[in-house]
Amino acid sequence: MQGLLGLSRVVDRINQFIGRQVSWLILVAVLVSAYNAIVRFLGEGLPDYLPIPRASNALLELQWYLYGTVFMLASAYTLLKNEHIRIDIISGRLSKRVRDWIDLFCHIFFLLPFVVLLVYLSWPWFLRSFLSGEVSTNAGGLIIWPAKFMVLAGFVLLTAQALSEIIKRYAVIRGLIDEPNPQHYAHPTVEAAIEMEDKEGIGRG
Question: Rounded to whole angstroms, how far apart are CA atoms 165 and 102?
Fold first, then answer.
């Protein structure tokens, strides 16, 4: 089990590093989007002697690629931080051990098969695009295979993180490690709402 936990720590460190680094692409995407909007707004008013790129489909597609890259490569980091959406008002009423078993069950039988299937389907989809040199059908558009590679890479990272979460959740249930995300299981807003509702129920009783 210690070997698996060691593997889990390696996966966590990789996805934490990638997740933090790709967050800067949001800033790049915003700057590209703003530049594209300004240049389009100015239009013909820009003098020809200015050596700056004009608005184009390539710039539009670049900002889509940047947003897509952040979404795909940061999804594993989001899973690592346990920040994916869940119904806290329901899960907050369950005991910690029940939530641990639910997480373990769902990671094994829902998340893991899904991401493995997407890796399986994404590989030939990316490979065909790469080998053919697929280019956007928009005039002046970008090559497409880098964007498809980000989809494949995102699901590979998410698969690795799913395995890491399964290892950690099993270790938590066995009492081998402490809860890696204690803040998620102590959501103050949800716990306060539940406590207030319970008190109101007692008062009415």
Answer: 12
What CA–CA distance (Å, rounded) separates 104 from 86?
15
pLDDT, tens digit, for every residue of 160-186? Answer: 999 999 999 999 988 888 888 776 555
| Mean residue pLDDT across the chain | 83
3-class SS of residue 147: helix
34 pLDDT more than 90: no
Strand, coil or helix: what is 143? strand
How far is residue 14 from each of residues 4, 8, 21, 124, 204, measured CA to CA in Å? 15, 10, 11, 25, 52
- Cβ neighbours around 192 below 10 Å, total: 10
Beta pairing partners, 135: 143
Long-range (24+ apart) CB contacts under 8 A made by 112-116 are 112/159, 112/162, 112/163, 112/166, 115/155, 115/158, 115/159, 115/162, 116/159
Write the pLDDT tens digit of every residue in 108-155: 999 999 999 999 999 999 999 999 999 988 887 889 999 999 999 999
132: its two tokens: 């053919």
The DSSP call for residue 137 is: S
The residue ranges of every structural domain in the chain are: 2-84+91-185
pTM of the prediction? Answer: 0.81
